[in-house]
Amino acid sequence: LSWPTSPDSTRNSALDVGQDVGEYFALMLLAITGILLVAGAQDIILLFLGIELASIPTYIMVSISRPLPIAQEAGVKYFFLGAMSAAIMLFGFSYLYGTTGYTQLGQIAAVLHEQPGGLNTWQLLALVMLLAGFAFKIAAVPLHAYAGDVYQGAATPVTALLAFVPKTSGFIAIIKILSVIAGSRWIAPDVVIQLLWVIAVLTMTFGNVLGLLQFNVKRVLAYSSVAHSGYMLVGLTALLAAKGLPNSAEIQKTALAGVLFYLAAYGVMNTGAFGVLMLLPGRTDAPGRHGPGGQPLSTAESAETFEDLAGQGRNNLVLGLAMAVCCLSLTGLPLTVGFFGKVLLIKPALDVAGGDNAFKTRMVWLVVITMVNAAISAAYYLKIISTIFLRAESTEAAQAAGIVPARRPAFRSAPVLLAVGLSALGTIFFGVFFPGTSALTKRVLEATGIQSREVPAAPQPTIHQASVDAGVP
Fold it and tell me: Rounded to whole angstroms, how far apart are CA atoms 138 and 313?
């Protein structure tokens, strides 16, 4: 999406980094590298470094994405809130290290599972602080407030990156920490499950309700991103709430696979939606592009507001259909990958609700709240589709008289069109071709070792501990 879209191949219709093109793409690669480091980290120090490597480049990318005060303001807000979340995370990691004496995840898990009485007060505090820090990365309540301003202020390609890269690193980190706390059989304290339940409910509800109140499409997708984090937290809640059930292993396998599958599916359909916004032309001076003092809020030549989208489906049928496919998938309608993603998240929660343990009633309510929120989200997704296809486009006479701003010329770029096309086709393919979805899920299971449910070997003692056992000072 960051590829040049102008005829002279030097500019992007939504992105304007000036002479910092090399730095921009270097920062993008660093952020993606951070995800890989988080996924491979087996030490809390490397885990923290990976999370920050996936986040810090995005702070800079937001600020340099276009030369506007709104972009710099968004970057500063994002940076300071990110610094606060990093401090909260370090607070949690410090207590986790202080109460166990290790930084290796395997050694921390061994200490936690061997101590009598489960987690002590300081270890629970560490877990709460870690979840709070990770909540910022995934844009979950209570650290979600930055999403609207940052997503609107950043250029559209950067917004698409923000919706996936930090969220991915955050969810992978949450899964790793929960595996340390809960062990290979995912048996966690009840208070942890209750905390995840509350965060999931608040996140999806706040995201969808705030999405209904927005007039900027990028802000709508920002609060949509918040809501989708809540959906994925439903899967993590079911993962831990299945403890004690006869078929807990199967439920846990489905829940974890569902979270990972939905994370990938969300990235595909969300990228398609932002790509269509880039390719649809905006207006030269549309309402919502200037602040109260006349200060420009956007120099983008691509669509960003509902006024920009009005009637564009008639002139750009293929792009309009691509946006419709992505929005319907984000809603969770059948024949889209979003539908299967929501099924894989809700099914384990239903299985726990149909079982017989202490979380049966809570999971029933969680499923009901999830379905209600999915219905609420349909309102703003359908608003986007109806604006593109059903809302009347302004007449040429009104544009000539200056009553309604004229549209800028449309931009076309083969790489951006290819990205949008692959996203839309992937959204439909994995929603219609169920064996393809099953094969992808199986590959996820095999890659994470869930399919065999192999329990890792007990960690070897450190050199220091081995020396103590041998009587060496």
Answer: 32
